[in-house]
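tokens incoming
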């Protein structure tokens, strides 16, 4: 049973509290009810399972040692009913090994008795935010896949839906496609998706970046060469056109192909056969061509840098990918996808991203597009010391331009001590008094930061009364 999670916009969440000590369960429930959540109490594993089967809940808070059953069994049951239910484990008996097993089964947090109620509320809120983000990502991915059948194309914006609809129409054909978009927008990913949904999907997808190769090397890569065709050609080599026979050839940065190679490429497209360098014998090929470029090819035609006849050969259908700054509604979904990927790759237990950090990501301009976002999330996952990505984990160049970010403008005549004091003050203000985050941002230890606070006599108001 899957359902949509409660949005984390202040809407009360429904929480199931499970503990065989009813008094303790009631205390936890009251602590959460006091901040607006709705709570159900169960005093046994069987009662909790019965509740889960009959009612939809957003989060389960359970003791690991229950009178009638192991609490781990309840985690398995909750995950089988709804894999997006957030589970927080509370116990006074568990070991580190038990906690690890609980996390592996799907629990998102682990607390020891006696429970600090203020800390419980904070962790519950984080768990709910993470679960809502995962549900939303899954919902949007399933919407794209169910409607269009293009796995790997991530986005819920109107523009992305329109692109996928066009891809759905053209993929089954052999029409040549020109993909336009800034660097970093993922043009090769779209080309692969078209191939994967074409009648050629059982054959090879062959990519080639034309901008990365010199004229002679590019010609050899495209069309192949015979032994002895040039110095260093010690054996016959088939080109990308022959290798892609019955499949798809993807030429990235086609706008950078030299004029002499453009002529030969046009001939191949018109005649359906290639002639290897150093040979006079044509070789037939059956290739579906997809090209991509970040350049304006019409301008290059006017500048006589690109052949107009070749342009019309490769541009039967045009797909233009918008820059990330024009589809910011897709950023949360992309963040969720990259966060999950890199948490797995780097073996990090990252549960989600804070609302403020996500806000910064959605307001940043992203000159490097999806590639830059992907790199930023990997950087955050690798360097984060917590389980939730925070503003302090963002690469410096991303949050430096934010309205409340610490600035480092220095007036002439300012002493080093004054500069240091101001920097500490602004950083503490930026991270709302969190000394751990401030120390990390400043690149110093927490003890050093505390000593500096004492040394400069910072008042509680100046350091945001770090608690």
């Amino acid at each position: 049973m899957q359902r949509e999670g409660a949005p984390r916009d202040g809407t009360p969440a429904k929480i199931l509290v499970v503990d065989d000590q009813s008094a303790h369960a009631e205390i936890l429930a009251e602590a959460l009810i006091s901040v607006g959540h709705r709570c159900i109490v169960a005093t046994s594993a069987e009662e909790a399972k019965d509740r889960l089967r009959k009612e939809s809940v957003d989060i389960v808070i359970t003791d690991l040692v229950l009178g009638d059953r192991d609490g781990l069994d309840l985690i398995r049951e909750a995950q089988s009913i709804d894999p997006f239910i957030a589970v927080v484990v509370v116990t006074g008996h568990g070991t580190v090994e038990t906690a690890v097993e609980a996390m592996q089964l799907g629990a998102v947090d682990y607390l020891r008795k006696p429970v600090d109620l203020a800390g419980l509320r904070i962790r519950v809120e984080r768990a709910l935010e993470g679960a809502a983000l995962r549900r939303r990502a899954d919902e949007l991915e399933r919407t794209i896949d169910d409607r269009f059948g293009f796995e790997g194309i991530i986005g819920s914006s109107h523009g992305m839906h329109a692109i996928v609809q066009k891809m759905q129409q053209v993929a089954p054909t052999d029409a040549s496609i020109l993909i336009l978009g800034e660097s970093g927008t993922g043009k090769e990913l779209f080309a692969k998706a078209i191939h994967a949904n074409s009648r050629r999907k059982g054959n090879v997808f062959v990519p080639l970046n034309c901008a990365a190769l010199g004229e002679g090397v590019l010609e050899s890569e495209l069309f192949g060469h015979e032994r002895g065709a040039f110095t260093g050609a010690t054996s016959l080599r088939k080109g990308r056109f022959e290798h892609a026979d019955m499949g798809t050839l993807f030429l990235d940065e086609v706008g950078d192909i030299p004029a002499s190679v453009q002529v030969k490429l046009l001939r191949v497209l018109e005649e359906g056969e290639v002639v290897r360098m150093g040979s006079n014998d044509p070789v037939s090929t059956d290739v579906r061509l997809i090209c991509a470029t970040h350049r304006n090819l019409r301008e290059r035609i006017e500048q006589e840098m690109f052949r107009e006849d070749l342009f019309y050969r490769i541009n039967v259908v045009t797909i233009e990918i918008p820059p990330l700054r024009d589809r910011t509604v897709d950023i949360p979904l992309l963040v969720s996808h990259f966060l999950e990927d890199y948490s797995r790759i780097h073996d990090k237990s990252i549960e989600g991203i804070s609302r403020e950090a996500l806000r910064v990501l959605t307001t940043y301009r992203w000159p490097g597009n999806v590639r830059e976002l992907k790199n930023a999330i990997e950087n955050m996952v690798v360097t984060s010391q917590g389980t939730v990505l925070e503003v302090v984990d963002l690469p410096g160049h991303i949050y430096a331009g934010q309205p409340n970010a610490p600035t480092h403008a220095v007036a002439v005549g300012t002493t080093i001590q004054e500069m240091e004091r101001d920097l500490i003050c602004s950083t503490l203000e930026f991270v709302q008094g969190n000394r751990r985050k401030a120390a990390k941002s400043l690149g110093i230890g927490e003890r050093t930061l505390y000593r500096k606070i004492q040394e400069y006599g910072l008042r509680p108001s100046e350091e945001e009364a770090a608690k």
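note: Residues 117-148 form the longest helix (32 residues).
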